[in-house]
Amino acid sequence: MLSGYDGTEEETMVIGVPREVKPGEQRVAATPAGVHALVEAGHRVLVEPDAGTGSAIRDEEYAKVGASLAPVEEAWAAADMILKVKEPIAEEYPRLRPGQILFTYLHLAAVPALTAALRKADVIAIAYETVQRADGSLPLLTPMSEVAGRLAVLEGAHPLGKAFGGRGILLSGVPGVPRGNVVILGAGTVGLNAARTAIGLGADVSLLDVNLDRLRHVDEVFRGQVVTLASNAFNVAQVVQRADLLVGAVLVAGARAPVLVTRAMVERMKDGAVIVDVAVDQGGCIETIRPTTLAEPTYRVGGVVHYGVANMPAFVPRTSTFALTNATLPYVLELANKGVAAAARDNPALARGINVWRGRIVHPAVADSLGEPPTPLETVLR
Hints:
The protein is α/β, with parallel strands linked by helices. The protein is built from 14 helices and 15 strands. The strands form two sheets. An eight-stranded mixed β-sheet has the order 3-2-1-4-5-6-14-15, sandwiched between helices. A hairpin with a 2-residue loop joins strand 14 (354-357) and strand 15. It is globular.
């Protein structure tokens, strides 16, 4: 149906839900409740066997609500729209089909090779992370940012143990012994959730952001339990030296994360300090960070432990799957019921999620990362 689908009420969209193959990824892009809603709306859903196993969702749960269990080749080849959690990896590139809608996390600014593959495949690629409301909020990134922010401190506290290369610090301290120092760069969703967890663990918490209104909000929410600082090169350099745990929580929607902590700053950190950069999937805001996996999450640069897992919410896949699909389902239904062009015209937030349209880059931040002008979206929606 790829060649002629326009999303009219009389037509059925075929939606493919493949099993995630990125190393360590256990989430799935649709729950049984989501499949039920799509089937009830008149669409056909193809789910690859074992796609939900990592999130403790059995194949029969999908079958009971009307999904067809289909081998991976069929799930990709027959689908008008592919629902995923993470971006396609190289082995999946050949499965993409011209005119197919791909709806998933993409983070293209940090992965030029994927952008090139999507253009070559002639698909319409919509990124969860750039679906953006008029107030600037990111409804499909927020739930995973909440999970990642809370995990960042929990995961960072673990390698602080001496047996894992850290300083041997208990973040809460004990009576008579100072608390561990947690520094968070960015007061967005990730930063606020990281601060909440760090405070809950009893740590000494500092949070930096360029937006003073955000810092005022932090001060009000946490009632003075967080030290707030304006983010600039001088302040960042000072607090990094004090940090036992440094959390990178910086986001520029669709663009590469700005590097706030240089290699020289890292070299001045305490021996055995830990860095967790949640922005690693957008290139990272720490110069020395690189992507790692849940199987091998850390490495050292000098005396500093680095944690660079690019899909942190996969550590808690069931929670993450349900949190993500609660947010994505309304947009999936819009795309299925109306077709991508009409849905984008009717919903400006969804329109901002479109990164690549059949060979053309339409998202300004993604185009800027490649040094080329974007194609105006309105010209391809006609």
